[in-house]
Prior knowledge:
Blueprint: E1 4-7, E2 10-12, E3 18-24, E4 33-39, E5 46-52, E6 58-59, E7 67-72, E8 77-82, E9 91-98, E10 106-107, E11 111-115
Parallel strand pairs: 2-11
Antiparallel strand pairs: 1-3, 3-8, 4-5, 4-9, 5-6, 7-8, 9-10, 9-11
Amino acid sequence: QMRLVESGGGLVQPGESLRLSCTGSEDFTTIYVVGWYRQPPGKQREFIASVVSADTPDYADSVKGRFTITRDNAKNTMYLQMDNLKPEDTAVYYCYARRRVIDDNDWGQGIQVTVSS
């Protein structure tokens, strides 16, 4: 199982930005898809964004136009740039990676993002 480590979370005010990073223990050039989920307080985990190598990223409607996912295969790292943050973006954010279409996801440990004035 690949190890994934998130960083970059924290407390920000509404309208501000954060960039999350997630670095994996394996070569990202062999990874089919990487992405992010989040779990707001008292709610289920929900899809945020994903990107397959050389493909157009996919986003949840709730973050489209505000969040940007990228992957740097040379660094085995994915990023989630979050702009114009809102209080409803408050959640624990989890990165994931899947080696092949048929495989299960490997998950990071999660990182807290809090948006509050």
